[in-house]
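SEVERITY: medium
COMPONENT: batch folding queue
REPORTER: lab tech (J.R.)

DESCRIPTION
The queue accepted two submissions in a row. Attaching both inputs and their returned structure tokens so the on-call engineer can compare them side by side.

ATTACHMENT 1
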Amino acid sequence: MAFTVKNEVLIRVYVVLTVIMAVAAAIAWKTFQISTVEGEKWREKGKSLYIKRVPVEAERGNILTEDGNLLATSMPFFDIAFDPNSTGMDSLDWHLHLDSLAFCIATFVDPSFTPGGMREYLREQKQAIREYLQNARNAGKRYILIKRDATIEEKELISSFPLFNLGRYRGGLIILPKYKRQRPFGILANRTIGYVLGDSISVGLEGYFNEELKGEFGTHLMYRVGNDVWIPLENLAGIQPKPGHDIVTVLDMGIQAIVENALQKAMYRHKARYGTAIVMEVKTGAIKAIANLDWKKDGTLWENYNHAVGTLVEPGSTFKVASMLALLEDGFIDLHDSIDLEQGRTIYYDVELEDASPHTLNKTTIERAFAMSSNVGISKLVFENYATKNEAGKYLRRLRKFFLDLPTGIEIHGEPSPYFKRPYTEEDNWSGTTLPWMSIGYELALTPLQLLSFYNAIANNGIYVKPFLVTQVQQYDQTLKKYPVTQVKGRIASKNSIRKVQHLLRAVVDSTYGTAHKFRSDRFSFAGKTGTTQLGYQRLENKTRVRGYQASFAGYFPADDPVYSCFILISNPKEGGYYGSQVALPVFKEIAEKTFRTNLQLYPLVNDKPVALDTRKNLPDYDAGFVPDIKTVLSQLNVPHHDRSDNQWGIIRATHSDSLKIIKRPVANKRVPNVLGMGLRDALFLLENRGLKVEINGRYGRVRQQSIRPGTKAKGQTIWIRLG
């Protein structure tokens, strides 16, 4: 009996175990079937109903000039769509508004649709609602695009359409905001302002200050209704994006327009490969203008690359001033010393070096050799004082003290470091001819901005200031961060050496043998150095092959008390000459002249000494008007005066003591006032407030005559006044 019970229990256990194993096998098979056999089907089904948080773009901050002009701003645009399956929409609203909605869309949004055609299209969507619902809406249309990239005005118009004006849920209107970057000044400083594309491409100020400008993205729960089509999930709000901060630049768009226009004309005139121009404020290092022009495929000019910041070039003769400053600082020369120019030709280790322009000069002063840009003269000075003494390292160390070996740190990504060969190294291909060629701007490389920063230090009496573009970060006109002027402690050279180099740069312009003398101006003074660089040159056995030229000019103005430094570089001009004095210098002069005309700080003061007051006959007399305005003007002009009017309206009288007094001008409420001696604004205010109709003769000046006698009762008459 016990054996029978035991067997019965075992049988039951085996049955239960078998069932469990069968269920487990079934589950395993189903799991395998769902994940592997039917996996793609269920993954696609899941995607079609996928709900996720979608990033919501923040409004990007503005890029501004110091005076508040917009250089870059984000304008709102909208993708507007229609959800005919919105859960808040009922059939009564649909049928009531369908005809008029179709008419509005066809008429105001897309005239290519006829009202009847749009009505049928919308009706088809409505008729399919049941099918959409029964198939979990993943096969139905929940999104009908009405207009892409609508402006604010277009959005307001479409939102007012029948049915749409019932709102998001009842009317099915979907509005998805987005932003587009706009640059009101077009090409002006376009590359410097820059842009950002995704996470990989960031250019100019937009790229450098992207963290400050981009703001914080928000999120919104979105519901996928088709291939890459998402609509906001109903009744659920997201995280609102935070707008970005604004950055304030030091760019002056008046100077920028002058620079861009002058450079553009030179590019067309000389058919050059590219051109760049920079204007910097001497005392602060603020970049007031920066232009870069390249050719597009259609033959027009555009800012494709920031050559001023990112292109290393052999500077050529504009580098000679660095060699002269090194020689002066090391005490090797004085400007009145003599140098043999050998009639413009000399030999270094069987390699001939010649001056750019033929001449027959032998011995001359160092000052003249520099002003006429003698390659022979400058190279011999450096060769004799450094190379023959195996002191190339001393020369390079001196250049480092001028900060010529360092990038400027300008707020734009992609600035390369300057290139200088290491003395006597095989890796840098140092040879016996390296130092004489380096002294005149070859076998080394700088960006235009790096070289201008050096010239700016010379203009600033030896004080090097870091060039910069942005002065502050702000939000809602409140300053969040300021970027102060960065001035390097000490001077790049002694005051005496700087003064002598400044004299050399003046001689280039003022002396009759200077390379810039032909462009000397009687209206303003400037100083600087021309440069002409051979591009792609090859030293062959019996000649040097040149593939093109680079014209440049570096300088500052006014020469006596510099306000701006400026650098012009035009690469590979093909027409109208190729020398710096022919191609780059005219651009510099045009920029300087036009900047001079529009900038009062460049003019010398004419009232910096005390002057005697005008005699009584030249003081204003019998001028009348609103007393607070009169007192404000006289106070601003520092004219002594006494107010005895005790009234809102007064008249100025000159006294015998070279001062003025303001006496009362009576004005009655219902009478024609005396407006003689008043300006037009005050006269019109008084006359029209008494119901008089005013006719005016004359275009400017004060009231000299009035047709109705003062004190006459005002009855809405027409009064004539004459200005003069």
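ATTACHMENT 2
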Amino acid sequence: MNRNKHNNCGVDERDNQLQASETDPSNPSPRTGPKNKFLYEGLAERNVGITEYSTSAPGISGILKHRLSDFQVNEISLDGTIVRLTSQSIPKNEDEDEDEIKDIVDESGLCEQYIEDIDSLVALRSTKQIEINVEGLTKEKRTSIHKFLSFKYGKSISTNTIKNDQEKQCIAINLASIVRDNRQVTWPKSRPEYLHFALHKCNMDTTNVVSILSKQLRVKVNTIKHAGTKDKRGNTTQMISIRKLHASNVAKVHAKNIWTGNYVYKDSTLQLGALKGNRFRIVLRNIKGSDEEVSSAIEMLKLHGFINYYGLQRFGNSIVSPTYSIGKSLASGNYSEAIDNILKPRPMESAFVSDTDRARTAWWDTKDPAEAMKQLSKKNYTIEAKIIRSLAFNGPKSYINAFQIIPRNLVLLYLHSYQSLIWNKIVSRRIQKFGLKPIVGDLIFKDSEWKDKPIEVINCGDVIDETQEEEADLVVAKVPAVVPISEENLSKFTIFDVVYPLPGCDVWYPKNEIGQWYIDLLAEDDLTSEKLSKKNKLFSLKGTYRNIVSKAEDLKWSIYNHDNLDDDLLLSDIETLSNVEPFKSLPNGSFKSLMVEFTLLPSIYATMVVRELTKQDTSAYNQASLCKDLDMKQHIPIPEERTNNYKKIKLDVNLVETMAAVIKYCSDMSILQNVTTCGSINCLVSDNICH
């Protein structure tokens, strides 16, 4: 059973859209230009330090995220409520509140004759002053004029009671010097200021959705608040809040793969990190093993937990320039290198050549932002485009300016990616040498209150300017206190109590030989804890702590038997709301799939739970390879587009290995010039051959 009519963002449809955008001029897309014949396989877990497991039990082989519907995430609010889209109705009392607003009238009756002039003032951005003669009017009637104009024009105008040249009292109307937006600011007294609503999205990241909401609702991006970002590839539901916006306006938002509902007004806004966790429902397709073997593996996972690695999502999609390489450059204070890493050409990472790709190549060849900017379309708002335009405007070496014009949370993401790489590597080495038992010198939280509160510290310090709304999302979190385990209390703790630091200037390292590992690993990048503190707090890293082993709570599972590998086995929130019939397992289905459902604390990766269960690399390349192998074994006809994708992946691996050997030989023999290292794949690639 394939439910694309309800969940219309399936893989096949998305491929069709990409193909259409190439051939149909009326369907423009930033992904234009020729297709690349070969693609890099992308980052693998071993590239980011993910190597160990919590048990030696055999895994349950299965395919992850084969369908978008295979990965469902629902946010858990601070009160423990699982956020679901269950209604799209407007609150019943909203109409009553609107009646309250409609009661705002001009009791003087003077405003009507000036409305046309005020409309022109606002539309033409005129500096003209309009005066309404209110000589002899009572204070109450003058107040009604102020309220009426405020209701009708919001902050587009300013009104003041003054005396004119004839010493007569009048109300002066001017265009406001700062117009934040065109929303009505008059608000029902009985209604709380903040609209909260459930956002359900499919195959879109949270940042993208916020941008779409901003444009359609005509509000600033930074006024749209959420507790945290959610996975792109899947169906996710989370809460959003916006100040002084009517639910009826949000209900009118029309965008593909975005749904809103469960509207409620509250007295406070959402804060970044204000969630208890996330509830996951994940399907693993074509699993191997009996129900007894699955049950045994699940019980092992419940008992021993999983290594709490930072998953591949933390490190971006690029193998040529992963986010940790940019973060390392920023942490080292080498801002020009960080810019180069962002703008480094990636000729074999996308099937389509975009204007961003062309701009990267122009920058790399010329280091001239003006030349690179010529390659960009006017509607290109990517990070690369913003940086290139900043360099063109402020000068080709104004690197810090360039980082100040991109979202600060993104800059911090680069830095945290580098911290995460160090953390993953240290934890893997620690487990290899000491296993999964606490040792003397390991760290634990001093206060037990932190045990179930993994903290991602966003280090912005005094960077925050309270006059700028966009900085409200940059939360300065306190680094929790830790203490080392001693010989005397070693027996009181388990591996679930042990926390290891992300490197920074405000953390302790383990009081054993592992502390030196941190120092040595940072030294390889010419860094120390002290160097991670910067005068510019945007680039400063305090560090934080993270449990090295964690558990999935309230873990449940079930088996689905089905005949079609592409059957949608789980209902999304919008499908449940639309009364779509759930999938029913077939007694003798050709395929056997596992659904697991569990809860995780914030900042913990569900893919690491799946990894422990399957004992497989969770990278997209590895999952695609499993799917390909299955198609070949089952003798299932593969659509041409998918066949080409498989060939690209397979050829890429062989191509890179062959190129590496050839170019290494040529380089040693001084046959080739201009030979460069290519990202983290540990091979040499000639610029000429890549292009």
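NOTES FROM REPORTER
The first strand starts at residue 63 and ends at 64.
No errors were logged for either attachment.
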